[in-house]
Write a structure and sequence with these properties.
Layout (H helix, E strand, L loop, with lengths): L2 H13 L2 H8 L3 H15 L4 E3 L4 E3 L1 H27 L6 E6 L7 H11 L4 E6 L2 H10 L4 E5 L8 E15 L10 E2 H5 L3 E4 L4 H12 L6 E5 L2 H8 L6 E4 L3 H4 L4 E7 L4 E8 L2 H15 L12 H5 L1
Parallel strand pairs: 3-4, 3-5, 7-11, 8-9
Antiparallel strand pairs: 1-2, 5-12, 6-10, 6-11, 6-12
């Protein structure tokens, strides 16, 4: 058993599927399966029960996973410490990003390249729950997500504020409304992101506070797909207002929500501030919005958008 096999095992354990784990590790499925079989042979235990749809971890796998995480994390910290000892900064950075703030990525990557040309950046589009899970198990260094973080042991740094807005097609019955109350929006049939997405969770929580539930007519797991679909339906959706700047269309109308407003905070989420302090400071500098709390007012973030 070596650290490479442990890393492969952790990926398979967390994904529950050889194909997804192989994609995450940039390996072929046969090569990954062979490594897992070799690990099982060297340990003389069965780590997974193989079904037609997924791999089910055995009790031995649960035990190994709990021991493997601190070992892999310790090895990575040792490597980082040695790089710093030689006067070299960490050369890789894994960032998890919500789909609804993915528009930050293109210009962020270019600015990171200019600021740290030797830094290799890995960007993963994930749900908020998955970002937090991967931060805790060490698969991610930093997340860009809605705040606050839900899992204990995670820290956050606010970058900017936004608001949830109602989005409707241009011929929608509410087209003449300048703003729409949350109670009015609750009555509308909606096309929403799935329940694993934080925007959906925030909206459901807001309605629950009013004793209401969303009127879900359909779901899609793609924000761009939702906006395209609205053009051909009479449905509505809710999304962060800043999305309009990059996904705007003359055939869609964005209506501020009121009574109450639904504020959003977007920020950096991380586990180990000391370890990632240089990266946190760099991302904060590149992303921080000088006009926080004033949506629509040009500021530092507009350079990125």
């Amino acid at each position: 058993m070596d650290f490479r096999q442990l890393r492969y095992f952790v990926a398979v354990y967390e994904e529950g599927h050889v194909g997804r784990a192989a994609e995450r590790l940039s390996l072929s499925q046969p090569a990954l399966s062979q490594q897992i079989r070799q690990l099982e042979h060297s340990l003389d235990v069965s780590l997974f029960e193989r079904t037609s749809k997924r791999l089910l971890p055995t009790l031995a796998a649960h035990t190994l996973y709990n021991h493997a995480l601190p070992l892999l994390d310790g090895m990575q910290q040792a490597r980082d410490a040695l790089r710093n000892f030689r006067g070299q900064s960490v050369r890789t950075l894994a960032i998890g990003v919500l789909q609804t703030v993915l528009y930050l990525v293109p210009q962020l990557l270019e600015q990171l390249r200019k600021a740290q040309p030797h830094l290799v950046v890995h960007i993963y589009e994930l749900s908020g729950l998955e970002i937090e899970r991967r931060l805790l198990n060490g698969a991610l260094d930093i997340g860009i997500s809605f705040l606050p973080a839900h899992q204990p042991g995670l820290h956050s740094l606010v970058l900017y504020e936004d608001e949830l807005q109602l989005v409707v097609p241009v011929d929608h019955p509410l087209r003449e409304f300048k703003k729409v109350s949350v109670s009015q929006a609750a009555e509308l049939p909606m096309l929403l992101l799935g329940e694993e997405y934080q925007v959906r969770q925030i909206w459901q929580t807001q309605l629950a506070n009013l004793g209401r539930r969303p009127h879900v007519q359909a779901e899609l797991n793609s924000m761009a797909g939702i906006l395209d679909s609205l053009l051909n339906t009479s449905l509505a959706t809710v999304l962060p207002g800043r999305v309009q700047r990059v996904q705007g269309s003359s055939w869609l109308l964005w209506k501020p929500l009121t009574e109450p407003r639904v504020p959003l905070k977007v920020g950096l989420v991380y586990r180990d501030a000391q370890r990632h302090q240089p990266a946190l400071e760099l991302l904060r500098t590149l992303l921080e919005d000088k006009s926080a709390g004033r949506p629509g007012v040009p500021g530092a973030l507009d350079v990125i958008i």
